[in-house]
Amino acid sequence: MEYLIQQLINGLTLGGVYALVALGYTMVYGIISLINFAHGEIFAAGGYMGVILLSYMASQGLMDAHPWFGLAFALILAMGYCAMLAMAVEKVAYKPLRQSSRLSVLLSALGMSIFLQNGLMLTQGVYDKAYPTEFTHGGFEAWGVRVSYMQIGIIAVTALLLFLLNALVFKTRIGKAMRATAQDKVMSALVGIHSDKVISTTFAIGAALAAAAGIMVGMYYGSVRYDMGFVPGIKAFAAAVLGGIGNITGAMIGGFVIGMVEILAAAYIPHGGEYKDVFAFVILILVLYFMPTGIMGENVDDTRV
What pLDDT is attached to residue 301? Predict the structure, then answer.
């Protein structure tokens, strides 16, 4: 039982990260029916921005005096940077093709993904960059279950960001504009909603969440790499499809399901760690075979963005 609880905590930690990244995919798709394959590279850019900021503050001794303030400051700056980067990507790669075919936009997204990944490689190098270790040690043990402070921090930040996102989407004016644009672009424009601003805001919000996930992954595993966004990006896309692409509640559920499946498969199936990615996608295929629109469905108006 202790081992199962330990794995559930690990799955919750990993699933929270996938959920944050999946929300970026599902929000953009809900607005403009676009799969933003450059989203994984935004996730990686957030991880790099985090290591740059935290390493600089550690070199100045700021992390010794106020480590949690330094982490919060780095998190906010990285989220802001990635939000602006995503808005620039939307203006350059997607907005000019908004009236073009789906294939043209898809190719543009793939091209932007390659461009951003190679940009990270050229500017940051091909070798891993290590995160400062102030937050990677320590924890406690209760009833045979080991929980690190890093896991608690990831779960807490994930829960906070998911709560804030729900409040933004369902309780604010911009959230109402996003939901209206997702449901009917023509009618929303007729009542005065500026669709270009709504689309840019959606890209920015999704990128900010991905940046937070990138920092948390970098801190959890201790380092970042220029191509770190590819596999988590694909898994987060699978999570978005699993939950119901375009449905934010479904993306959250899908992220946690993928994380749990990956961890439990690695823990309980012989040699499961070598094939954990396979199990996650098998679950996705089975769900889509029996429920083609995902767990929550992609056209639930109350939760679609």
Answer: 46
